[in-house]
Amino acid sequence: MIDRTRLAALYAREQASFVSAHPRSARAYADANHLFGQVPMTWMNKKAGAYPIYLDRALGNRVWDLDGFEYIDFALGDTGAMAGHSPAATVAAVQHRASDLGGITTMLPTEDAEWVGAELTRRFGLDRWSFALTATDANRWAIRLVRAITGRPKILFNSYCYHGSVDESLIVVGPDGEGMSRPGNVGEPVDVTVTSRVAEFNDLEGLERQLAHGDVAAVLMEPALTNIGIVLPEPGYLEGVRELTRKYGTLLINDETHTFSAGPGGATRLWNLEPDILVIGKSIGGGIPIGAYGLSAEFAASALARTDLDLIDMGGVGGTLAGNPLSMAAARATLENVLTDEAFEHMIATATLFTEGVQAAIDRFGLPWSVSQLGARTEYRFSNPAPRDGTESNAAADGELEDFLHLYLLNRGILLTPFHNMALMSPVTTAADVVAHHVIFEQALGELLGS
Ligand code: PMP
Predict the structure, then answer these.
(1) Whether residue 162 has its Cβ less than 6 Å from ligand 1
(2) CA separation for the pair 164, 97 (Å, rounded)
(3) In CATH, what class is 88-338?
(4) What molecular function terms (GO) are annotated for this protein (predicted)?
């Protein structure tokens, strides 16, 4: 249905106009000779244009690049900036902590941490909280704890999940239905099937088959997949996961780093889920690095009672800068003033407009695509019906089409998350911003489909 010759020609045209409009970014990239892959982090080479656009400044849901272009930002740092860029309340708290009071990192607790813990309990229900600087680390430390407490060696993941650069999680369901290393896995420390098991999302039978081995300490999952498009849970699936984990003595860790978009208490509160551990990161610091994990009171007590576990020094759980005063001040201000219950109402209403507009365009052009929304986050996928699991969703990827749409939008002032077709709404994203996207999206489809 997509004419590939036409797609390639349009992409080449967009690439030429990108290059002619972005000479300063071109120079910055060409001159970046001291960086591994020419970028501060290798994934910044995931770009639809010939090179990355370089940031000049960002505020609210707007980003400006070095060449002077302004963008409506629906990527929001892939959730790190879900609160909007440099929200005033967070900036004020960070300045106060760093400058008026002083003390960015000290190895001493601040009272802000208890405030944040109490607020996370109010939102998500878990009783005891501990902090990291990234969601990756929060996941890693949660994994160590569940292994220690259950005495079981393996963690179960969903195929094509993403939980950060966590060794155990880089597993997919192979052609024979069993686990294998995710393609591209960089230098795995041991064969991933030694540490992990895998089941498809929405597949309770597959899950039970794996749990029945009796060696799974915990299932670590997103309540909806968000890193291979959005894959929503089918009715009864999440309840089934909880029943099966209880049946086989396996703990349940919900990673709400992205699914927090579902509402002020994430998918856990929206869907009344009962995880033993909950992980979150990125957004709650308003852009300042933070990760967190919450434990049930029972689990926390059993971990603290284990005098053989070194939770104080070098036992493998912790980081020097974790829980630092700056992160805690940022999280307190962001949760208290920015990512509030009211803000979520607005963000979700805005995302609903986004979803409806994309669906209308899909219908108008008769495209075999689908769009899925999880609260403030929405995403379209090049298949219909929407994929049911990670493997199906991975198969629906279309890199050429995605690059064309991303670049077409970027050239006209709209940023989507580079890794897929995700749009996230901040508290200051407006209906007008959404309409601006839709006008250009439809224009792109019109040119591509020749109608
Ligand atoms: N969990 C989930 C669900 C994520 O999507 C990500 C990152 N995309 C992470 C964890 C890791 O976050 P970070 O890179 O900040 O450690």
Answers:
(1) yes
(2) 29
(3) alpha beta
(4) glutamate-1-semialdehyde 2,1-aminomutase activity
